[in-house]
């Protein structure tokens, strides 16, 4: 951990600093009761700690042939619930948001 912040290359390209802010996460779009997380001052980007600390790979029963990998890509649709999500999700050729995992 850097004294000024942390790098999270799978999720965001800039340095993130620990932050506590009651707001929707740019990671998942949900408002959390306890919003400990990480904030990028460069682009006003907030990530919930629980989203950031999701496992890098998961197996999902709806897509048993492949392992899904945590990725960051703006605005995508979840293959399970169909809702348009924000930035962090699991992907192979099948997208799963953090709440459907």
From TrEMBL:
Alphabetic keyword roster: Repeat
SUPFAM superfamilies, A to Z: Cysteine-rich domain
Keyword field contains Repeat: yes
TM spans (from-to): none
InterPro entries registered for this protein in UniProt: C1-like_sf (IPR046349), DC1 (IPR004146)
One Pfam family of this chain: C1_2
Domain DC1 stretches: 61-100
Protein name, UniProt field: DC1 domain-containing protein
Taxonomic lineage of the native organism: Eukaryota, Viridiplantae, Streptophyta, Embryophyta, Tracheophyta
